[in-house]
Amino acid sequence: GAVVSQHPSWVICKSGTSVKIECRSLDFQATTMFWYRQFPKQSLMLMATSNEGSKATYEQGVEKDKFLINHASLTLSTLTVTSAHPEDSSFYICSARDQVSGEETQYFGPGTRLLVL
Amino acid sequence: QKEVEQDPGPLSVPEGAIVSLNCTYSNSAFQYFMWYRQYSRKGPELLMYTYSSGNKEDGRFTAQVDKSSKYISLFIRDSQPSDSATYLCAVNSAGTYKYIFGTGTRLKVLA
What we know:
The complex is a heterodimer of chains A (117) and B (111).
Chain A: E1 4-7, E2 10-13, E3 19-25, E4 32-38, E5 44-51, E6 57-58, E7 67-73, E8 76-81, E9 90-98, E10 105-108, E11 112-116
Parallel strand pairs in A: 2-11
Antiparallel strand pairs in A: 1-3, 3-8, 4-5, 4-9, 5-6, 7-8, 9-10, 9-11
Chain B: E1 4-6, E2 11-14, E3 19-25, E4 30-38, E5 45-51, E6 54-58, E7 61-66, E8 71-76, E9 85-93, E10 100-101, E11 105-110
Parallel strand pairs in B: 2-11
Antiparallel strand pairs in B: 1-3, 3-8, 4-5, 4-9, 6-7, 7-8, 9-10, 9-11
């Protein structure tokens, strides 16, 4: 199946710093990627849809200036958490939309655990 | 009413049991139905993808969709301790890329 990677897998940072998370589709091209946030024992919450070559589409309640998304190529999307605070601590997961297979499927990365001190 | 409802569990079964996991949804426009498995501290892994009503089988897993009842199921035969995970159902409509996820059901298969 299609493989999506994320880097880093976990990060600890001080409050006020910015953190960049990378999401890569390794064996397919993805014009659309998605960024989710997941709290412990809860389901995935869609934060934004990342479109290659255009601006991301953010879900209601998600601050676009705080969660910067860049989708510069067909295999890479980045999420930057700017001026991170402890309440931003969470599990961030990306997914990539596979259009080539003919099935409307999303493949997920392994996730990035962020802890803001 | 949530668009997708899923019993959070936890569900505990003995090894070898048949497991039935279920979701209901409210919007008849949903046409694509997915099941994901998520181990603790990992990303979701696609198990099954189905389109419209009917059954789809893959090894020990069978996905079932009943559009008339707005009900989707995942059956796991001969369950193994390695199946212990959270199972998430997801739905979406034609023409939109966004998935709507259930809350996930935590499954524990006891050896």
